[in-house]
């Protein structure tokens, strides 16, 4: 039998037509052609018996839906699709909702709007720092800060009292602090009190932190409380900008870096600190439906033995890794910042790599890690897309 066809009955409606197939509904609204599985259409019903609009939670038991279900009747008007199921239940969908929430609609959208940058792009944007008082006491200041952070992956707060306690108050304005093996709030000097290169005066190449966690920390906070000496500038590189250049010029390298899992490892036995952490994941992590990059895991210091890659892939992986490293090390991608007491830096550790130049003298930083979910939650509650 030929597929059933239909079209909106309202003459003022947007261009919309539907066609029934054996297991799905084909629906065209404007320029979007959607293929909606019947089980999906039944599962996402927003009627009072299937969905609790107050709690925004599904009430329908998905396991009770017949996997061979097919609507008994379908119709559409200018704004709404109606499906009547074999048991007489009626499901209504707004056409705009379907366009937004269908696979085809989501594929055209980004989860996290952002501005990719190199040093010149960021400097020309003249992204303002937010004053500490405005950040702490007004929603407008907090929203401006978070918008900058979401777009660029870094943001600054100025005029902060240079103490660990005041830095902690600042961090808690946007998130729950993530306690790790390094504690809740940490002091950071060159006393080699931990078994990590960071606790020295040596230069640190660009990297992301906690690649050896199964879920790397989302946001890192830095506040230089004191520096009596020279050097020590902080290096920042937009990893997503570098990865985008690899995608443009060598898509096969980009694809390989999203597919090959690696281990990162942290082994520590210094004083009373004994830890052995292992995190597993590819260098680049993308949403599979739109290929949008959401996490880069890059740390040459902590990358463990590569024993998860067969011999016929490992050489190609090294070529891909070299291509990404070359982009990350391009001088025009390097943003150098001198941290000073009172200026707090927030870094998206899933996107922006950081490093530092060697330094002399006594240098003390404090900081913490923030839970990414809570930062994004704060942004969404202020009306931002995050």
UniProtKB/TrEMBL annotation:
Catalytic reactions of this protein: N(6),N(6),N(6)-trimethyl-L-lysine + 2-oxoglutarate + O2 = (3S)-3-hydroxy-N(6),N(6),N(6)-trimethyl-L-lysine + succinate + CO2
Cofactor(s) required for function per UniProt: Fe(2+); L-ascorbate
Main location (coarse class): mitochondrion
Superkingdom assignment: Eukaryota
Location relative to the cell: Mitochondrion matrix
InterPro entries tied to this protein: AlphaKG_dependent_hydroxylases, GBBH-like_N, GBBH-like_N_sf, TauD-like_sf, TauD/TfdA-like, Trimethyllysine_dOase
UniProt record similarity statement: Belongs to the gamma-BBH/TMLD family.
Name of the protein described by the UniProt record: Trimethyllysine dioxygenase, mitochondrial
